[in-house]
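Fold this complex.
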Amino acid sequence: MTADSAGTDSDVEAAVRENHPALITYITAGDPSLEETKAYVEALDRGGSDLIELGLPFSEPIAEGPTIQAAINRALEAGTTPEGFFELVDDLETKAPLLVMTYYNMILQYGAGEAPRVSDSDAVSSRNKPDVRPFVERAAEAGLSGIIVPDLPAEEADPLREACDDNGLDLVFIIAPTTEGDRLETIMSQVSGFAYVQARLGTTGARENVSGATHDSLARLSAYDVPKAVGFGVSKGDHAAEIVEAGADGVIVGSALVDIIASSDDPREAVDELETKAAELKRGALRGSTGETAAGAEDAPEPEQP
Amino acid sequence: MSTGERERDENGSGRTGTFGDYGGQYVPEALMPALQELEDAYERYVVENEDGFMDEFRERMRDFGGRPTPLQRADRLSERYDREIYLKREDLVHGGAHKLNNALGQVLLAKYMGKERIIAETGAGQHGTATAMAAAHLDMPCEIYMGRTDVNRQRPNVYRMRMNGAEVNPVDAGSGTLKEAINETMRDWATTVERTHYVIGSVVGPHPFPKMVRDFQAVIGDEARSQILEKASRLPDSVIACAGGGSNTMGTFHAFVPDEESAEPRSADDSSGPNPQERVDLYAVEAGGSCLDIDEDAGLAPNSATLSTGTDGVLHGAMTKLLQSGDGQIVESHSVSAGLDYAGVGPELSHLVETGRVTPVSVDDEDALNGFHRLSRLEGIIPALESSHALGYLEEAHEDLGDLVIVTVSGRGDKDLETVLEETEKRDLEAAPAVEVFDG
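Structure:
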């Protein structure tokens, strides 16, 4: 449910507002296995994540850079399925609310290849027409609080938004550096949970510094009373500080965490590193909210990559 | 462009760019303003011919591209099948395939839009070649993404792209074919969208690409329709075109889609013809590969027969028919023809199949190779392996196709010679010359 429709903050919106400045973390479910994902999510939770995004892998991740693309490939090779993903979420107990981040075809196809899970008796023996509702209902049942779909613009989102509203889930929209004018107005009127502000053009991936586009985007959004969290390229505590100081209510970090998982030989070591990294990012965000960005710098900014 | 298309495309859903249940715009938010800008440019320049855009396009297609292409009566095929067989010779377009119709149109449009850079994906290399040629012709910098597997199996086209000044970027992900090349081009576009135009190579992708590419390719069917009326004084009973993404298919079919049973003559020109036809049957011939099943465990389809066997879903920006697993993962497709090797298909074709206007059929690798050799030997035309599927279907189904048949030869087969030799050697093909012939 959205703040507008229910008059109260949703779990997602409350998590961002009440933990201001919020840390939102992402990892890909099933990378390298669902069992390890469970330990990793719990580590991110302990480390201070205020919201956790779990990627449900899709074979054609067109919005992802090489790091998350590789994680998705590892997860698919490990046999990660939507049902396995939901069973993982069934088992997770975190203080941070969980969101699923996936591509639209995964949502459409859930339940299409088998007898419908929902009680409508129009069951057909062959494959069903794609429908978003079985996925959303299962997501709500598993305890997820929201959905992010990188290839679903607001123009195509009516069916999913209605299903999310009916099941108390937030549907988070991405605001790109190219989103301006009427489009910005339209999207901001539909946002629930928080606005996912894309820091720069392009795909996901850790970067060495914060893009100037972040500041421009936050300035464009300043008039809207919706929590704003910035992602795409955030990898360090100092980035988090700078972004929060620029006016963001939260920071979103994915590739830098996936890098830890990918480069670790020992899952237990990865668990510790993820918890430490989350804590560093949260400290950075807090520093940004007190205006101590430069004084507390943990690592000096590096020149912009060409 | 023929009149009446707006009425045909209307579906009452309230969404833009859809064909019945198919089409739409499913892309990252960063690309949406670019699609709006492109849609606006498409409406103004392509649909309304603002600033004489379409006049310039047609003039360049005539002088640079070599249009119109002939509609040739294939004498020996006509004799073999005991009916009139006509070939629409898109292999004679500059560059050797119909692909230039679209590439030149889009690069010219990018120029009108003030874009500074062209990117494109390619499978068999024909679209990449056409885009590189169009970009050189119109003085635009150009980069082409191509799967590593395709780079290896289509080397002549890689050389041709480089000759025309384009950079070719091999893509190593997945099976290294068209699907991966499209993903990578979309990523480039999402990063550079403000100054770059992505020349999508088929009637796939988000709106307005399916309509725009179809409009640039519709010249194939428009010419074929008037040429057959001139040569045979009637419309054909059947039109056959190979289908991968579907640009050759939609380009060929678009002018004939309204030729349905009980339809009134479409125009005063038609009614002046001596014998207007009741219905033109349209056959989209897909790559049957080695088998029509999908191996879900392996994530593989040993075919690219999306219209025949696919299910509805979203890939590369559009709702359409796809080769996918029960969970929604896109499976790797296969065809002996790199140009047909794609797990998706254009949304308008999905709609025309769903409504029964287009009949999807498939031809396996072996019958396509036989089609390749047959046309080469009987008519002196070496067809692309893509087109060879259409010729394979002609062999198989000619008795059911009526007295007058048009087959589109979408491109020439020079690019495929290495593949054909290799694949022919593995098989005992009736129509093929002996392999020793090639040893010197």
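The domain at 71-95+218-259+279-427 of chain B is CATH 3.40.50.1100 (Rossmann fold).
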